Amino acid sequence: MRLTRYTDYGLRVLLYLAERPDTLPSIAAMAEFHKISRNHLMKVVHDLGRAGFVSTVRGRLGGVRLARPPGEINVGAVVRRMEDDFHIVDCPSCRIAGHCGLRGALGEALAAFLAVLDGYTVADLVAKQPGPQALFPELDEATDPFG
C-alpha cells in the first residue's frame, strides 16, 4: 500500500500544527519548511479544512490551526479523506478478474491497513517523540519561521 504525496502532505500539516498549538503558521511558511509547492499545499489545507481537520484565520496575522484537539483527529479518517482511490490493482480491466481471488485478498489487506490507522490519532503520533517540538527540534522561539 502506498499513500499519495497529497496524503503525506496532509499528515505533515496536521503533525506540525499538533506540535505547535499556540502558533498560526501560514501555508507559505509550511510549504517553505517542507520544501513543497505552496500551491499544492494550499489545496491540501483547503481539503483538510473542508473535512473539519483544520481551520484558517484570514488576514496579515492569520494562518492555519487544528480545528479540534489532536486527540480527536483520527489518522484513518484523514487517510480515507485524502486518498481519492484505494484501487491497488486494476481488476476491472483484467481478463481473469471474475475467477481470481486477488481482489478479495487485497480488499482484506486494505481493510487491515486502515484498521491499524483507525487505532491512532494525531496526538498519538506526536506523543511518540520525546519532549516538546521533538518532530521539529531545529526550531526554537528565535528561529521559528511560523512563530
The CATH homology group name of the domain at 5-84 and 121-127: Winged helix-like DNA-binding domain superfamily/Winged helix DNA-binding domain
How many DSSP E strands?
Answer: 2
Average pLDDT score: 86
Tell me, what is the CATH class of the domain at 5-84 and 121-127? Mainly Alpha
CATH architecture designation of the domain at 5-84 and 121-127: Orthogonal Bundle
- Percent strand: 5-15%
Shape: elongated
Keywords: DNA-binding, Plasmid
GO cellular component, one term: cytosol
GO molecular function: DNA binding; DNA-binding transcription factor activity
Pfam families: Rrf2 (PF02082)
Which secondary structure elements does this structure contain, and how are they paired or packed?
Elements: H1 5-19, H2 27-34, H3 38-50, E1 54-57, E2 63-66, H4 75-82, H5 102-118, H6 122-127
Helix pairs in contact: 1-3, 1-4, 2-3, 4-5
Structure description:
The protein is mainly α and 147 residues long. It has a domain at 5-84 and 121-127: Arc Repressor Mutant, subunit A (Orthogonal Bundle), CATH 1.10.10. Helix content is 46%, strand content 5%. It has 6 helices and 2 strands, in the order αααββααα. Strand 1 and strand 2 form a beta hairpin.
